[in-house]
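User: Can you help me understand a structure? I only have the sequence.
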Amino acid sequence: MDALGNIEIKVEGFVGARKVSPAVVDIDEIKEVLSQASALLFPECKRAQRPLISYELVDGSVIHRFRTVMQSVIGFGAVLSQINAQGQIDFLHERSAIAIEKLQQLALEKDYQITISAHESQLRIDRTTHFQRNAKLWVDAEFYLYGELTNAGGKSNPNIHLDTEEYGSLRIATNKDYLKGEDKNLLYRKFGVRVLGKQNIQTFEMDRTSLSFIDLFDYDTEYSESYLDGLMKKSASAWRDVTNADDWLDEIRGGVHV
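Assistant: Let's start by predicting it. Here is the structure, written out as tokens:
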């Protein structure tokens, strides 16, 4: 059996005149902290791929205690040390960075002091800290995503849910008129979806919380060599003046890739 360790998120402050404790914290705040745990610890893993994370709510202000395999706890402790050393979160995986940002937002809104602890490392978040991603590193980009459409609708914020192999389930903001105008059943069918979103110009990660719908199209999951050949012939004229493809791509990318 794997050795286990603890990760704690301690919340200190006041609710009105009363010191914060499990008895006076609203369930929505507890849910907000809980929802960030797996993103902090296992940002790249689907539920079936990651180890079990158990949970305990403890007095002492409010302590959210998560228990999982020790190897992951040690690794997360190293991440906390690196955040402290750099004073920023731009190097984190997109899901982990968003989780830290949401805890920072909670600290600002409630004037809380939030301390994350793992394997002798700590990160303190309060109204004096500014753990937010650098907006200059995130630019508008288009993405082509492929998967099964598992949900569509929403009263005030219409969206579709696309279950992808690469990113897991993605929530994509969608125009209500588009969904209303579709005369065929979209659910549980495989589609390609063209979306607009934010992309990090350093890590090339996609911000999964920023996705908005552009277009939906059918696609065939079977490899077709004739179809690929057709696309290459169709695009050949656009490459007629390119003498060195690698140099041209490097120039287009601004020299980031080498």
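Now, to help you interpret it: Residues 4-130 form one domain. The chain has six helices and twelve strands. Let me know which part you'd like to focus on.
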